Amino acid sequence: MEDKRNIQIIEWEHLDKKKFYVFGVAMTMMIRVSVYPFTLIRTRLQVQKGKSLYHGTFDAFIKILRADGVTGLYRGFLVNTFTLISGQCYVTTYELTRKFVADYSQSNTVKSLVAGGSASLVAQSITVPIDVVSQHLMMQRKGEKMGRFQVRGNLEGNRIIAFGQTKDIIRQILRADGLRGFYRGYVASLLTYIPNSAVWWPFYHFYAEQLSHLCPKECPHIVFQAISGPLAAATASILTNPMDVIRTRVQVEGKSSIILTFRQLMAEEGPWGLMKGLSARIISATPSTIVIVVGYESLKKLSLRPELVDSRHW
């Protein structure tokens, strides 16, 4: 008799693709709305020099809320929603790569590692230009300049204009760097997110398997999957945060060299500078990863081909 504690991974060939994409876009949008404020805070913490503006995640949250209201926490959000496209490309590449690697290895760790890295490579090629623009929008604030560019309303200290910010930022990037400016930090992004994705999936499955043996047989799989997601996210965040700090500075400050950016960061702030924004990253990752994991696993279950529904224990 099958042990109900064994987690049955739903693979690409088990899915109804139409349901998978429709539900997937809706789920991704809800997740982005919930975690975007912490993404903005993390970006500002990583870009600021020392603690010149904010003393931590909570301090940044309060100051942004007081200065700009709730809308200040969602600056650049509309541009960032275009990453929904890259999100769907990510999951498609991940699932298809798992299927491909299965012809050569049955190891779930190998499949997860290769698929996670490949999916991130594809997604980042689409995401980086969107990230570059949205990050510069995240830097818009009243008072002291944070990034390289400021929208017209900020230059005189006036109220930030409601419309045209994105167009203004795009023009400034084109004028300063040309088309290459939209891929500034591309290599740094790959060096951040490919390892992050490649590490997250194996650790996620590892933690889920370990918890499945600790939980009672009748415990729903979704419970320890929901716990495993944040554990994997925290592990991946700690391992890749140094590169994430460098990536953010390269993109926002217009740096041209990863090595020079690293040296400057070490000279100004020492090794602890490589951990800037880590708490915000983990705080945003914990609830978002729970939502992502529960949403993604539920999405795959909802998207199962009808004839397979009764054959799975959840």
UniProtKB/TrEMBL annotation:
InterPro entries with a match to the protein in the record: MCP, MCP_dom_sf, MCP_transmembrane, SLC25A44
Lipid bilayer topology: Multi-pass membrane protein
Residues annotated as transmembrane: 20-41
PROSITE patterns per UniProt: SOLCAR
Keyword field: Amino-acid transport, Membrane, Mitochondrion, Repeat, Transmembrane, Transmembrane helix, Transport
Top-level taxon of the source organism: Eukaryota
GO MF annotation list: branched-chain amino acid transmembrane transporter activity
Cellular component, GO, one term: mitochondrial membrane
Solcar repeat locations: 18-100, 107-210, 220-302
Location within or outside the cell: Mitochondrion membrane
BP terms from Gene Ontology: amino acid transport; branched-chain amino acid catabolic process
Keyword Membrane: yes
Catalytic reactions on record: L-valine(in) = L-valine(out); L-leucine(in) = L-leucine(out)
Similarity comment text for this entry: Belongs to the mitochondrial carrier (TC 2.A.29) family.
Protein role: Mitochondrial solute transporter which transports branched-chain amino acid (BCAA; valine, leucine and isoleucine) into mitochondria in brown adipose tissue (BAT). BAT is involved in BCAA catabolism and actively utilizes BCAA in the mitochondria for thermogenesis.
Record's protein name: Solute carrier family 25 member 44
Organism per entry: Sciurus carolinensis (Eastern gray squirrel)
